[in-house]
Write a structure and sequence with these properties.
It is built from 2 helices and 19 strands. With 460 residues, it is of the alpha+beta class. It has 2 domains: 17-104, no CATH class; 114-459, Beta Barrel (Porin), CATH 2.40.160.10. The strands form 2 sheets. Strands 1-3-4-5-6-7-8-9-10-11-12-15-16-17-18-19 form a 16-stranded antiparallel β-barrel. Strands 13-14 form a two-stranded antiparallel sheet. Strand 15 (373-386) and strand 16 (389-400) form a beta hairpin.
């Protein structure tokens, strides 16, 4: 008995220590799980705040409910230990997200993410008698019959893709957008824009088909999408092949400069009708373009951007060349989160290769090439009246120098009007637009076309 006591006595004394040694790993695992849940909870809370801030900035936060914005118990109190109910709800939300991803993802042969995007757009329109027989004329023509109809041809289909990381830590991404505005049938699809880009922390390289580098901004319209809004009235828009390099410079936390330079392939056009000698025009020419944007964030809601740009190229025709040189200025400013000012201005010569809407870049008279000097631009005021309702008031014009033109050519093309967007649902937009186009012909007076449009767009 004494021997047994001698054997078990120490064991009895060290029994609690042995139990502690066994319990310590279990306790460490529990604490580790709690820490992980706390980190996940904090990350989810930050994601909710970010989404709310993004929606607030667009004025739709009160009317665009989302599963990501529904209240999650404990999600708004970082640093607390989530209850079992909270964990189960979070797992349920993550499960729903995975299910949604499985329903919306597009399979790619290289196993990289591709997102289907775009807008199904229905337009019902009506024009007055000086419409030239087209849905949305860019110049008012000779009087004829009024025109009304409906179409889905401005529907846009796009693919956004993201590739792997590349050299020096860059990220590859891009897009392709198409519509049905080519040809005479509704089945003809055409390429609108497309790009492949590599992003670094403060640098970007892009190759693709986009608007001119010096003129990236667009007015807002659901009525005119087959070509850019205000084509022929101050918006030089042609989608051109290009290579662009962008560099960001930060002067302070909320202030900086964005510099862009690139080479663009222009779409050359012949001399305007009436020239005594047409010659031969080289179909495309390289152009050098640049844009330098200064930006400043006044606060979380107010933002200022102002940029200057240039374009320079040579059009080859009839054994000689004619210069195409332009200077541009564009801006964005929202002094109040419900009010925005946007616009662009340009001045130069031979602007037809960039998408003026009518061919008046230059004329040829007895083997003498004369460029047409031009000045134009557009401006827009946006009013975010309510979370679901936006108003856009805009105007633009192109003013070609009369002394460079023959009688009967277009001296000035002016458009003004407005539209409203009403969100029937977060991704369903009803648009109403009315515009008046006033085209001044040298020696022939002014022709006017009124346009009315009802649009229904479904974003996907």
């Amino acid at each position: 008995m004494v021997r047994i006591n001698r054997l078990f006595g120490p064991a009895v004394l060290f029994w609690p220590l042995w139990l502690g040694a066994q319990a310590q790993p279990d306790l460490a695992q529990i604490l580790e799980r709690l820490d992980k849940l706390e980190r996940d909870n904090r990350a989810l809370s930050e994601e909710v705040r970010s989404l709310r801030a993004r929606l607030d900035s667009t004025g739709d936060s009160k009317t665009t409910p989302s599963a990501d914005l529904q209240t999650v118990p404990g999600a708004d109190t970082p640093g607390t230990t989530p209850s079992p109910a909270t964990v189960e709800e979070k797992l349920d939300i993550q499960g729903k997200r995975i299910d949604e991803h499985d329903q919306t993802k597009v399979e790619a042969s290289q196993k990289f993410p591709i997102r289907l995007t775009g807008m199904a757009l229905f337009n019902a329109f009506m024009n007055s008698k000086q419409n030239g027989g087209v849905q949305y004329p860019v110049v008012a023509s000779a009087p004829g019959a009024g025109l009304a109809g409906a179409t889905l041809r401005q529907t846009i289909i796009g693919l956004d893709f993201r590739g792997p990381g590349t050299f020096w830590g860059g990220n590859v991404h891009g897009s392709v957008y198409m519509d049905f505005s080519a040809g005479a049938t509704n089945s003809a699809m055409r390429l609108r824009t497309g790009s492949i880009e590599i992003d670094w922390k403060d640098r970007n390289i892009m190759v693709g088909l986009e608007k001119p580098i010096f003129n990236p901004r667009e007015p807002s319209s659901l009525a005119q999408l087959a070509v850019s809004p205000l084509t022929g009235s101050g918006n030089l828009w042609l989608w051109l092949p290009q290579v662009r390099v962008e560099q960001d410079f930060s002067f302070a936390r909320s202030t900086g400069l964005r510099a862009q330079m690139g080479v663009v392939q222009t779409h050359e056009t012949g001399p305007y009708p009436g020239s005594t000698f047409t010659g031969t025009v080289e179909a495309s020419r390289p152009a050098l373009e640049g844009r330098y944007e200064f930006y400043h964030n006044l606060d979380d809601e107010r933002h200022l951007e102002i940029a200057s740009g240039f374009h320079t190229s040579q059009t080859h025709v009839a054994g000689t060349s004619v210069a195409s040189n332009l200077f541009s200025l564009d801006w964005f400013f929202n002094p109040w989160r419900r009010l925005e000012f946007t616009g662009a201005f340009y001045s130069g010569q031979n602007v037809a290769p960039l998408g003026e809407g009518y061919q008046q870049g230059f004329g040829i008279y007895y083997h003498r090439v004369e460029p047409v000097h031009s000045m134009g631009g557009w401006a827009q005021i946006t009013l975010h009246v309510a979370p679901r309702l936006d108003f856009h008031l805009f105007s633009g014009q192109q003013d070609d120098r009369n002394s460079d033109l023959d009688a009967g050519r277009i001296g000035k093309n002016l458009l003004f009007g407005g539209n409203l967007y009403y969100h029937l649902a977060p991704n369903v937009i009803l648009g109403l637009e009315t515009t008046q186009l006033r085209t001044a012909y040298i020696g022939q007076g002014i022709r006017i076309n009124n346009h009315y449009d009802l649009a229904l767009g479904y974003l996907f």
